[in-house]
Amino acid sequence: MHRKCYPFLILFSGVPWLWVEQLEITFFGLPLWVLNAIVMSVLASITIAILLNDKNNG
Amino acid sequence: MDNLPSLGIGGSLFIALYLASLLVLGFIAKRSLKENTLADFYLAGKGFGFGILFLTLFATQYSGNTFFGFTGATYRNGFSWILCLHFMTAVVAAYLTFALKLYRLSDEKKFLTPCDFIQHRYNNQLLTLLVCLIMIAVLCNFVIAQLIAMGRAVEGLSPIEGTNTFEYGVLGLAAIMVVYGSLGGIRAVAWTDAIQGVILFFGFFFLLILMFENFGSLEQATNILINRDQASGTNYTKIPETKTLISWGSYIISVGFGVCLYPQAIQRIFASKSEKDLRRSLSVMAFMPIPTMLIAVSAGIFALAYFPGLEGPQTDRAFGLILKEISTKSGVGYVMVIVTLSAVLAAMMSTSDSALLSISSMLTKDIVQRFFLPLETQSNLVKTSKKISWSIISILVCLCFILKDNTSLIQLLDRKIDLLVQLVPAFIIGLHCNKLNGQAVLIGIVFGLIVSLVLPFSGFDFVENGKVYGLHAGLIGLIPNTTVALLGSYIPRNRHE
């Protein structure tokens, strides 16, 4: 059951709680903290897909 | 939406053809009905395979709000609205906590509506009725909002100038929805959802290409906003302040668990052909927020950079401004904008028709059959459900006309997520925790509802936009709700022991 919390934990780690402002640095036109939020969302999606396809998960 | 590009004759024909195809699908779905029962009408005899299930989940979850609302929200908040990517992903993460177990139970017990699970699990008529009424209230609010959005879209798109375009648009689209819904039930809705899902997908895809072609790279737009932040002290690209970060976390929980409990979403879980199909559909759904939300946020950033100056409710015009700009640049742009606008209309219709069907199924099964006609035959119940659909849509269309300009009433109704999230203990905790007691859950929900409805309208200084220091009122209401449900279930039991 606790494994089902992983996607939420990953999403929460995408919230820029402790980020330091570095406006001048962008990647693909995105500020770093935005890029971090997107990467964490992708990771959460992958985790959800893995957990959904895990036969032991019900 | 008076800033939308006008459709012209070609565009109007394309949309007319699309609407006609929905009616044709309704007739085909009617011929595919296998038996005259509520289970076949509302769950297609549990026959949704991976493709249809995924497309109908996609079309139902992403409404017209995805385009207009989220682009407008990005325009108002800047990059911090990237939080929408998180809360839409959280919806699928929330499914993970209950969907598979609920599916297995529904398969065994032949559930038709979400309230069937509540009645089976708690055997408490009052709780079942309360849950049913909350869900119906939420869905009515949902359909009214979509009808208003549809009317505004038709008003903005219509090549003909007229004073009653809004009313004709709402009436016409509502009639089409109720006709195909009454003809083929969930089959018609799911098949039309599939068409709408495909149009949505292509609409998003074309929009992405056209935006970059017309406005250049996202980097240019971001640099404009960074310079604006540095020059005028705005916060479009800066890390949001603490209150917004708390709100971000609150959105993840509230929207994630609220949206996954929409009755139409739960009924789609019931309608899955097999657990494998459900697992696969939800797995693909987990990745859908990435393209859809990123496109909505990008559109908002482009609008903010290149069309500054919109304020308040005007910010919801940001998406229309982007489309208008693209459509005037080239013939290809115009055609692609037509596809995108069809996708917007499709998104609104697919969300409303599913909600309408869910309302009629719950009124028929959970109210009429359970309390008034327990011995009625299935074929008569199907007839009753169709009459209910027509009556409900008539009432909702009238309410839509009354409410369209009354923003204070809309605000009162716009607490749907705060209400839905109060059902988390009843559905999700109750599914996993056998000791949870129906009476305690009922009292918990009442406490939760009081807190989440009173707080936003209390006038307290610490409540801002229905949130307390960034936390949604519904999430605050969930604390006493869950506490009462758990304590009420465990303490009396321990005393007896």
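The first strand of chain B starts at residue 463 and ends at 464.
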